[in-house]
Design a protein that fits this description.
mainly alpha, globular, 81% helix, 131 residues, 0% strand
């Protein structure tokens, strides 16, 4: 069942990533890779949130967490695209944009992951489970 959950989640994440990329092409112009940046930042927040929800007590069953975390978020976010786009920016003499991309990705990615984790923890404390 875990394999099925990861597969379904992976398919959903890949489709969401594709839609983000399509939308960002129409929304933004220029050399900054907005699609990958947006997908990665959303993934940082969502994975932080899911992890925070399950930190103190299991609010989301393990199979669903695998499907959402490993499957969906794993295929939504991508370090390889981030790395290749950074190299391409550098190679096309967009050194400052490449540096900005790395800096913004690291700073905002960590900030969003922490924020999601914090919100998830606080949210899980408020939920009362009757057994």
């Amino acid at each position: 069942m875990n394999y099925v959950a990861v597969g379904i989640g992976g398919m959903a994440g890949a489709i969401i990533r594709y839609l983000i990329s399509l939308y960002s092409i129409n929304l933004w112009s220029g050399s900054f890779p907005y699609g990958t940046f947006t997908a990665n930042m959303c993934g940082c927040f969502i994975l932080g949130l899911l992890t925070g929800l399950n930190e103190k007590k299991e609010m989301i069953p393990k199979t669903i967490m695998l499907g959402l975390g490993t499957g969906m978020i794993g295929s939504l976010t991508t370090f390889s695209a981030f790395s290749v786009e950074t190299v391409q920016l550098y190679e096309s003499s967009s050194i400052y944009i490449a540096g900005l991309y790395v800096l913004l990705s690291a700073v905002f990615g960590l900030l969003l992951a922490w924020s999601g984790f914090y919100i998830g923890q606080k949210g899980s404390e408020k939920v009362v489970v009757n057994k």
